[in-house]
Hints:
Layout (H helix, E strand, L loop, with lengths): L1 H17 L1 E2 L1 E5 L4 E5 L4 E4 L11 E4 L10 E6 L7 H16 L4 E8 L5 E7 L8 E9 L2 E9 L2 H7 L1 H9 L1 E3 L7
Antiparallel strand pairs: 1-4, 2-3, 3-11, 4-5, 5-6, 6-10, 7-8, 8-9, 9-10
Amino acid sequence: MHAFISFLMLAFTSHLVAAEVAAAIVHGPKAAFNIVAPEKWVIDNTAGAEDGLPCVLFHKGQSWQTADPLMYAKIASVTYEDAEAFAKIAIAAAKKDRGEFEVKRVASGKTKGGQAYFINEYAPNETYPRHERVAYVQLTNAVAYIVFSSDKGEVFRKEQDALQQVTESLSAMTVKKEDS
């Protein structure tokens, strides 16, 4: 009986740990990509599920619910295929919800897999005090985006390079449709 209880405890705790990994694949109906967490960060593929986030990142030893800073990675809706166009629409929607804020392009380049990306910084304002940067990555017929967010300006500035590290680790993957 003791061995059985030990087995159950091991199985339960290994399931919890298995959600936090150093690398992950994010997929959608038209595209997929893999990313690697920066040093001292983990990727969790279950913690953000209730928020519709298939891939969240936070510092080791923290949790998604209390992490500062935090990141999440997604693929934009299938209706968006152009990163620049998607960013413009996302900015307009955010300004409608949050009011005016400054937008600044802070980086651009190529990912490990050769995909073009750019990173915008979104200044906090009175109605939305979080500091954010978003990386937009052009995939074939899709857009990946990675959000980096913090409540505190000093934490944001200290940790902001983590977003570029994750973005540059990205490699697109081929999504094959199954025959019906």
